[in-house]
Write a structure and sequence with these properties.
Elements: H1 4-10, H2 21-25, H3 34-38, H4 48-69, H5 73-76, E1 83-88, H6 94-107, E2 117-124, H7 127-138, E3 143-148, E4 164-169, H8 179-186, E5 192-200, H9 208-221, E6 223-235, E7 240-251
Parallel strand pairs: 1-2, 1-4, 2-3, 4-5
Antiparallel strand pairs: 5-7, 6-7
Bound molecules: S-adenosylmethionine (SAM).
């Protein structure tokens, strides 16, 4: 099935000039049985329709979560002049899109984004999600690499002189992979990192407890220079949802 966003990029309707998270959210669409197939956001996404459905069911919620995350002092005043970005469980790249919109608006101050962001590395198990994420994020005119992975294994990134921003958006709460193994494969000794994690704090298996567990693993195994965390309620049209998030500046 054709990817509606990739088609819109090919046809010049989504461009480097107008790309944004809001633009991506405009492609939300529901399909029969789509909500159930997403399995509360825990499923590995199997089709481009399910990507549209994810935007329909969860896109505005993810944007609302990130509005809260972007209030952290560490994101208002980014600690690095220039950095790489790694998005783990990136899906269609919505969280990095929201983050890059923020960097463009707040940190660029006349600089082009490519002079701030060295490269973006995307990891997910879904080839459909990775393809869309790659095509959207390339429009930000930064170097993008996408790779299919099965968590907790993540390839060690090539050595880079740049510090790294690692995004863990709505992935740590999913059960089925070991959090300490993920930490070990993400953070080889010797780097500087800003780690940003956010998830719903749902009252079922997994949930916010895993986010808090990952944060405590970071504090136990790495040198934390600054850390902020919070839990709050996001009000959506028909329901409200409890969200947990943290941002930690650390040396690995
Ligand atoms: C809830 S979505 C989060 C997407 C995005 N980070 C966001 O905040 O909108 C979870 C993503 O994790 C991927 N995923 C789920 N389990 C995975 C696993 N074991 N290994 C790699 N990716 C996985 C799914 O394909 C999906 O794209």
């Amino acid at each position: 099935m054709t990817d509606r966003i990739v088609s819109a990029i090919r046809e010049g309707r989504v461009t480097p000039q107008n790309v944004s998270a809001a633009q991506v959210l405009g492609f939300r669409a529901a399909t029969d049985g789509g909500f159930e197939r997403l399995n509360r956001g825990c499923a590995v996404i199997r089709s481009t329709e399910d990507l549209d459905q994810y935007l329909w069911s969860y896109g505005r919620m993810v944007a609302a979560q990130w509005a809260g995350v972007l209030e952290f002092g560490l994101l208002q005043n980014l600690p690095f002049e220039r950095f790489d970005v790694t998005d783990v469980g990136c899906g269609q790249g919505l969280s990095t899109t929201l983050f890059l919109d923020h960097v463009k608006a707040e940190a660029a101050r006349g600089r082009v984004l490519a002079s701030i962001v060295g490269g973006v590395r995307l990891y997910d198990a879904s080839p459909h999600a990775l393809r869309r994420a790659f095509e959207v994020l390339r429009l930000y005119r930064v170097s993008v690499k996408a790779q299919s992975v099965r968590l907790p294994q993540v390839p060690q990134p090539a050595a880079s002189a740049l510090p790294r921003v690692t995004i863990l958006s709505n992935i740590l709460d999913i059960e089925g992979f070991d959090l300490n193994s993920l930490r070990q494969s993400l953070f080889a000794p010797g780097g500087r990192h800003l780690v940003i994690a956010v998830s719903n704090d749902r009252q079922v298996a997994g949930g916010g407890a895993r986010v808090r567990q990952f944060q405590s693993l970071l504090s136990r195994h790495h040198r934390l220079l600054a850390c902020e965390s919070k839990a709050w309620e996001v009000q959506m049209a028909t329901r409200s949802t409890q969200v947990v998030a943290f941002a930690c500046l650390m040396e690995s």
